[in-house]
Amino acid sequence: MAGQGEDNPAAKEKLIRTLRKSVKDYICKLDHRSALFWAERAVTVSKGHVHDLYWLSHCLFLTGQFHRAIHFLEKENAFKNHILCGYLYAKCQVQLKNWKEAIDIIDHFLNESGSLKKQKLQFLSGEPESEQTSAHSGLLLVRGQIFETLELRDRAAESYQVALRLDVTCYEALDALLSHNLLNAEEESQCMALLSSQLAASGLSSEETSFLHIIYTVKLKKYKNEEEVRKKCASVALADDPEILSSVAENHYNQRQLTASMKLIQKVLAIDPYHPRTILVYLALLVEMKEKNDLFKLAHQLIDHYPREALSWYAVACYYYLINRGETARQYYSRATVLDRNFCTRSALLPCTGETTIEQSTSSFARSISLTSTASVRRGNRW
Q1: What angle is formed at CA 344 by the lines to CA 338 and CA 348, rounded to 5 degrees?
Q2: Spatial distance between the Cα atoms of 91 and 270, rounded to a whole number of angstroms
Q3: 55 near 23, Cβ under 8 Å?
Q4: Which residues pair with 110 in a beta bridge?
Q5: What is the DSSP letter of 115?
Q6: What's the predicted TM-score (pTM) here?
Q7: Bridge partners (DSSP) listed for residue 116
Q8: CA–CA separation, 94 vs 192, rounded Å?
Q9: Which of 12, 143, 159, 290 is the most exposed place for a label (fewest CB within 10 A)?
Q10: Rounded-to-integer distance, Cα 261 and Cα 264, Å
Q11: Cα 329 to Cα 16: distance, rounded to the nearest angstrom
């Protein structure tokens, strides 16, 4: 079409901007195939500009086409020259379980300590500082996940903690440290102190700092009593937040205050019936209180709605454990850990046999149903 080709750079640039906007709009609408289609066109029109190569690879990642994404990220060495491309490249390699390739690209950008190597980084957006921080913390997060997969738990913990120091809002790093039991009690206190100092130096507003501090205080259980938590949460509109209530309920459970814990759990479930962390505590309570019928009903609901989630099969294991069918419980628990290898450290568990924390009671449950057995569990069967 006249006026739209190489002889009209202004029109071409306008078309590229329109295509890029369409890509992002369709990603926001979760229409990944449409986003991918227009991302491919943007790469063609821009003649492979790195910005469009990144967003094309991003769309390919979202549609599960990891090899294709890697192919485009390797063009013009984009994955080595642009930190955001390197981050996406590492994510793709992790999805393919290519641990060495993922670590190699992370090591290309980061020192062993987690700091950026002294090299001239190139950026895709007009906000290089924000992009650098986001990609840097992302690379540390991926490094931690790989180390966990390789059973290098100490190194994983180090990577997650550096990610948090770099980006105090990187919740996934904090969650991995806590839910995967990578910190002992003393280290948790040190983590809270670190987060407090990082928040103070973050440049966030006092309201934002207070908001985050309260959330992390509750997640790390570094508070004196529930009344203190309630007042602080109410001050930042978090009084009815499911994550906050679930954390307080878990703390009640750990302290053997089962009635108080159940009251909060029921409040959360009225807001969000399938909140994962709440379901974990709820399962522990149902087993502790020997509520077979409720446990049976909940397990069925989870299998119906989330058959690919480890939590669902764990619920089935809890039911069989409660009715004294230990071998069957062990098989379903094994199935849960096949779906999520970290589930055994994430589970909130049961039964409480004198231990003081949910994490400690996990080992009791494991012993009671002989989880050390290596018997395999067939996939695809309903219970």
Answers
A1: 135
A2: 36
A3: yes
A4: 116
A5: P
A6: 0.85
A7: 110
A8: 30
A9: 290
A10: 5
A11: 56
pLDDT digits (tens, 9 = 90+) for 137-156: 999 999 999 999 999 999 99
Environment class of 348 (CB within 10 Å of its CB; exposed 0-12, middle 13-18, buried 19+)? buried
Task: Count the helices and strands in the chain (H runs, E runs).
Answer: 21, 0
Assign 3-class secondary structure to 238-287.
Answer: CCCCHHHHHHHHHHHHHCCCHHHHHHHHHHHHHHCCCCHHHHHHHHHHHH
> From CA 11, how far away is CA 13, in angstroms rounded?
5
Q: Is the dihedral of CA 313, 314, 319, 321 positive or negative?
A: positive
Q: Are the C-beta atoms of 60 and 66 separated by less than 8 Å?
A: yes
Which of 106, 23, 97 minimizes the C-alpha distance to 66? 97
DSSP string, 95-164: HTT-HHHHHHHHHHHB-TTSPBPSS--B-SSS-HHHHHHHHHHHHHHHHHHHHHHTT-HHHHHHHHHHHH
More confident residue, 368 or 89: 89
Length of the chain: 383
The distance of Cα 91 from the centroid of its chain, to the nearest Å, equals 13
Mutual angle of helices 258-271 and 242-254, in 10-degree steps:
160
- Return d(Cα 256, Cα 251) in angstroms, integer: 9
Maximum alpha-carbon separation in the chain: 80
- pLDDT tens-digit map of 21-46: 999 999 999 999 999 999 999 999 99
| Residue-wise pLDDT tens digits, 302-331 | 999 999 999 999 999 999 999 999 889 989
CB proximity list for 5: less than 8 A, separation 6 or greater: 12
